[in-house]
């Protein structure tokens, strides 16, 4: 099971292995169920919205994918391997928090990513910094919260990763910058990879989503292409989400 | 990747810790100046008070800076491993062992630098007074002579000194790893994680003290039975004293290292 991806490459007739496979994935916190036997496959080359209200289990699932949490039960495979050093080299993760060292300069942070990630493209990072007029010489502590989030997104999207996991990438920025950020995501991700995007701001991201996953109380209640939802339900994903998760 | 982790750990800490050590040197030089310029022989109370103030500030700064270094290293570990920066650190494609080793080696390097800076700053200050310097450097000369071979005819003495230095170094690692383990164990609590870390620290400290007391009780018993003396550097019991410290600190290093690794690898749960 650990080498499913390499097995798929050996057999040209085999369908492309899912980039993420979850089987009976369960997580409890002191008896409280956060994820309930989740079974999920994410295919390559898709932009997928992970949508659900607060406390639905989105962040728990994302943390498990990134190796920041251990599941209580079940299995998860990223490109055919359990979360570990190898999968971390293939996942580009943007957490909800600002994880940059405030004392470092933007250019030092770029160098940091260059040093640790072999798939980091430094010229792409500087190009995006230039476009957003973020001075590389500036220390991160002198930047606004929104600009720090942009720097973080630039660093994450400057990698040629297999899987991009973006947790609320547009929550902290002004509406005018959201389009630029979404454009940055769409135009920079590795086309052979997958983008998993968790957000509350569905109307802002709906236009770029290929697939949608609804998660509620730790259960996956829907996984479908965004276009299929629009055609079957006759309404936008945003409107459908509001109906499904109405209080 | 270990080298890269150490490089960035060093870069993240030096901006605060180098100025702290430089401040000790500066205060030692100013204090040296007050002695050389005979501030204390002046007829002016203001000049005398300035000299006293300078030297008192120097000695106080030593304690403040040692405490400041330790507090900063603890804060830095907590923030970079279990704070927001942990989201980056724990998603780097690096082994958790490398993270712990990089942090421990850099922290011990700072503590060593602190020790060396303080020692030489005291030498500088006391060199203003030849009588004091002669007494003070006696201990230092003794170590230098042993290391340079002058005392090699006394193999037991040289061996004890070398093993004592090695033990001190391992004890520094044990202290750093103890703090790392306590902070890590504190993360297992659902609330009040910092308070839990402090509680773990004092709990472990108490257990360590108990081990030491038990050792000394046995040592005293052994002394009475065998007649071997533990007092003085050449006492027959000195060898077993550093041996106890060495073994105890090695065990502490292994236990605290494992606890830190276990929480990072198996029980990580960033807020």
Question: What do these coordinates show?
Answer:
The complex is a heterodimer of chains A (247) and B (271). Chain A is α/β, with parallel strands linked by helices and 247 residues long. Chain A has a domain at 1-90 and 162-169 and 195-247: Rossmann fold (3-Layer(aba) Sandwich), CATH 3.40.50. Chain A has helices spanning 4-10, 58-65, 85-88, 106-116, 122-131, 145-157, 175-188, 202-205, 226-233, 237-244; strands at residues 20-29, 32-42, 47-51, 73-78, 91-94, 163-167, 194-198, 211-216, 219-225. The longest helix of chain A has 14 residues, at 175-188. Chain A is globular. Chain A starts with a helix and ends with a helix. Mean pLDDT of chain A is 87; it is low at 1-10. With 271 residues, chain B is mostly helical. Chain B has eight helices and no strands. The longest helix of chain B has 38 residues, at 45-82. Chain B is globular and about 70 Å long.
CATH topology of the domain at 1-90 and 162-169 and 195-247 in chain A: Rossmann fold
The largest sheet of chain B is: none
Average residue-wise pLDDT of chain A:
87
Calculate Rg of chain B over CA atoms: 22 Å
The count of DSSP E runs of length 2 or more, i.e. the number of strands of chain A, is 9
Helix-strand sequence of chain A: HEEEHEHEHHHEHEHEEHH
Structural class by sheet pairing and helices of chain A: alpha/beta
Based on CA inertia axes, which overall geometry of chain A fits? globular
How are the strands of the largest sheet of chain A arranged? 5-6-7-3-8-9
Q: Please identify, by name, the CATH architecture of the domain at 1-90 and 162-169 and 195-247 in chain A.
A: 3-Layer(aba) Sandwich
The quaternary structure here is heterodimer
What is the share of helical residues of chain A? 25-40%
Strand percentage of chain A: 15-25%
Average pLDDT figure of chain B: 82
- Total helical elements of chain A: 10
Biggest beta-sheet profile of chain A: 6 strands, mixed
Count of β-strands of chain B: 0
């Amino acid at each position: 099971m650990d080498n499913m991806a390499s097995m798929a490459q050996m057999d040209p007739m085999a369908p492309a292995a899912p980039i993420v496979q979850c089987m009976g994935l369960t997580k409890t916190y002191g008896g409280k169920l956060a994820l309930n036997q989740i079974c999920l496959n994410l295919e390559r080359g898709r932009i997928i919205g992970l949508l659900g209200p607060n406390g639905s289990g989105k962040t728990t699932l994302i943390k498990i994918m990134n190796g920041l949490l251990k599941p209580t039960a079940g299995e998860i495979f990223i490109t055919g391997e359990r979360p570990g050093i190898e999968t971390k080299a293939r996942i580009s993760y943007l957490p909800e928090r600002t994880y940059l060292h405030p004392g470092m300069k933007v250019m030092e942070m770029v160098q940091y990513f260059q040093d640790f990630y072999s798939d980091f493209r430094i010229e792409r990072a500087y190009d995006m910094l230039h476009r957003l007029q973020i001075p590389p010489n500036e220390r991160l502590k002198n930047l606004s919260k929104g600009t720090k989030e942009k720097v973080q997104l630039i660093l994450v999207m400057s990698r040629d990763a297999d899987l991009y996991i973006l947790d609320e990438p547009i929550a902290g920025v002004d509406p005018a910058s959201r389009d630029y950020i979404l454009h940055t995501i769409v135009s920079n991700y590795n086309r052979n990879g997958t983008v998993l995007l968790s957000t509350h701001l569905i109307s802002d991201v709906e236009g770029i989503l290929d697939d949608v996953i609804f998660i509620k109380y730790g259960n996956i209640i829907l996984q479908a292409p965004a276009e299929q939802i629009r055609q079957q339900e006759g309404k936008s994903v945003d409107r459908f989400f509001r109906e499904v998760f109405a209080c | 990747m270990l080298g890269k982790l150490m490089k960035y750990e060093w870069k993240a800490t030096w901006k605060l810790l180098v100025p702290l050590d430089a401040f000790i040197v500066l205060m030692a030089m100013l204090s040296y100046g007050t002695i050389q310029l005979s501030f204390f022989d002046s007829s002016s109370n203001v000049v005398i008070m300035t000299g006293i103030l300078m030297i008192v500030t120097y000695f106080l700064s030593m304690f403040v800076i040692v405490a400041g270094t330790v507090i900063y290293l603890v804060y830095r570990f907590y923030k970079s491993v279990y704070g927001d920066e942990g989201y980056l650190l724990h998603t780097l494609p690096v082994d958790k062992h490398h993270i712990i080793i990089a942090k421990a080696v850099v922290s011990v390097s700072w503590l060593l630098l602190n020790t060396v800076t303080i020692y030489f700053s005291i030498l500088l200050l006391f060199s203003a007074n030849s009588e004091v310097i002669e007494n003070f450097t006696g201990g230092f000369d003794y170590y230098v002579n042993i290391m340079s071979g002058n005392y090699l005819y006394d193999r037991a003495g040289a061996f004890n000194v070398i093993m004592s230095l090695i033990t001190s170094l391992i004890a520094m690692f044990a202290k750093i790893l103890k703090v790392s383990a306590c902070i890590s164990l504190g993360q297992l609590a659902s609330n009040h994680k910092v308070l839990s870390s402090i509680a773990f620290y004092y709990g472990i400290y108490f257990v360590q003290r108990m081990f030491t007391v038990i050792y000394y009780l046995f040592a005293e018993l052994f002394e009475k039975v065998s007649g071997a003396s533990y007092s003085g550097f050449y006492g027959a019991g000195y060898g077993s004293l550093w041996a106890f410290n060495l073994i105890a600190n090695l065990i502490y290093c292994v236990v605290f290292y494992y606890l830190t690794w276990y929480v990072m690898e198996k029980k990580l749960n960033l807020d």
